[in-house]
Amino acid sequence: MDIHLYLMCYRHEALVASHLSAEEFGAYMAVGTRKKTFGNVVFFELDPSFRSSELNLDQLEERCVPHSSGQPRRSKYMSVYRVMEHVPLEAYGQLHLTTRDGRVLTLDSQDYQAPAGRSEAFMYAELCPLTPRVVTKLDPLEFTKKITDSANPVSVPRIFFAETQVARDSDGRLAGYLPYNNPAHIEDCLDEITNKPAKFAKTVDRDPPLTAFYRTIASGFYVGDSTGIKQYAYPSVDELEEKHHKWWRSATMG
Length: 254
Fold this sequence. Notes:
By secondary structure, this protein is of the alpha+beta class. The protein has 6 helices and 12 strands. β1 (4-8) and β2 form a beta hairpin.
């Protein structure tokens, strides 16, 4: 049986080996195990040839074996600590977004597309290894370079995050359809970043609840470090409704 390597990275990180395909694995992790009874699952499929002794992958073939009955091994945890920093950028493959009822949407990486003509601040949901919600003047590439620069007092070797929506109504309030539980505070943070040129970023929430998370995604997801960045563009609502209707219907529920 083929062995797949999955990096789970939704507010925690774990490297898991499995004989299951990505769709089967996502469904299993969301609804097929008592260890996880609610919530979304987000994970990368890594290059199957990637090996790292720091992540115990030198033991992969001897640890991820079928059960004695011949059934595939659904999950074998290889590492649960400081995983992302040991996986080089080139090893990251497809990104899989799983809803709480086990439906999987797969995104391919693409060359980074800088936002054109953007004047307002960005809001990012950091997902791994950090988890705050932040607002910033920096676009995704600039933000990645800043947060992974070891010369800065606060930095990480690699970062995974999503750009989330900050659309406003005509009166300047966050759009009513956005499911944030503290819209007034987010508005204040956005205004502070916009009106203070010397301030490049501000933490909105250190440990934010990610209610209806998939409904809040803007341009997409990003993983990067000092060597570069990979972008995983998020489909438009029209495309989600037309091509991924069942997944989107599930995603809008939580």
